[in-house]
Amino acid sequence: MRVLILGGTEFVGRALIDAAVTRGDEVTVLNRGTHSLDHRVRQLIADRRDADAVDRVIRDAAGRWDVVLDTWSWEAYVVRDAARILQPVADHYLYVSTRSVYADPLLPGSDESASTIDASADDGDPSMQPSRDAVRDYAQMKRGAEIAILAAFGHRATLVRPGLILGPHENIGRLPWWLSRMARGGEVLAPGRPEFGIQYVDARDLADFILLLAERRGFGVFDAVSPAGQFTLGQLLAACAAVAGSPEDPPRLHWTPEEQVLEAGVQPWIELPVWLPQGVDHAAMHESDVSKAVSAGLRCRPVVETVADTWTWLRSIGGVAPQRADRPVIGLDPAEEEAILGGL
């Protein structure tokens, strides 16, 4: 295929480039040109927030693409402008959105038919809404971008909504934190019970699925995470302990009732990443129905492979994962963890 990737230098975008090049696709990327890229990729340079610059670069490129792949996570109007510019020269627009666009409460077994939050394709546009605080909300920006793409491409649009994304090159810090924690060894605070299910997708499996949808013209909306019950928190943490733990002081998982963890003031998802307590939040993140994506070809590699490959990558860059500036710092303070474990 002739593939245009908007961005393509971090995490999911990087996985998309790797997968597309491996497939033998003809890959063009459009970004600010601040990172080096695979020599087999054609690069167009423009700041996406400058619609005139994007329009000029696209016109000068004089190309036509089978599919546009977009992972933008900020202002919706940027996607709105890109979709309008690319509509005449692209057959298909595929946007990596998020399951966060669904309205609360998201019940167990929910799928793509669930209601979404209110948003606008103009969210974030400084010329239209300079004083609106909500434009900086991640879910609203993603939903606004979806609306923009549907307006420009209609039935030629695909919205892929992953939830938790893990794997090598993660720039949020969730799996890297658990790996680093296991490398320190000793007693490890593990929340809840090991059999509690989790849903996530390896960025590489997500990229493969996206390109499969593009190749097959899989239009529509797809929730893209592992099937409910396929993986558990216990499997994830055990894999982290196995690959990162030191023989001198192996990590020992201290499974602790969720009520005690919460009473100790631990913040789910942020201080103990991936974990959400049983109830509404857990159902929304880890109990969805993804049978549509599985039927369309989504495949998820074993958890031990995702964990081991992430640990290999993390060590290759000195053990410190990159951190997105727009996301909170992940992880529980060692002194706080020690105090909680000492009081159990």
Describe this protein's structure.
The protein is an alpha/beta fold and 344 residues long. It folds into two domains: 160 residues, Rossmann fold; 126 residues, Alpha-Beta Complex (UDP-galactose 4-epimerase, domain 1). About 1% of the residues have low confidence.
Number of domains: 2
The residue ranges in which pLDDT falls below 50 over 5 or more consecutive positions are: 131-135
* Number of extended strands: 13
Radius of gyration of CA atoms, rounded to a whole number: 21 Å
In helices, the fraction of residues equals: 25-40%
Q: What is the residue-mean pLDDT, rounded to a whole number?
A: 94
Tell me about the largest β-sheet.
7 strands, parallel
The CATH C-level name of the largest domain is Alpha Beta
> CATH topology of the largest domain, anyone?
Rossmann fold
| Category from helices, strands and their pairing | alpha/beta
Q: CATH superfamily of the largest domain, called what?
A: NAD(P)-binding Rossmann-like Domain
Global shape: globular
Determine the number of helices (DSSP H or I, runs of at least 4 residues). Answer: 12
Key traits:
single chain; 344 residues; alpha/beta; Rossmann fold; UDP-galactose 4-epimerase, domain 1; 2 domains; 7-stranded parallel β-sheet; two-stranded parallel ribbon; 12 helices; 13 strands; 16% strand; globular
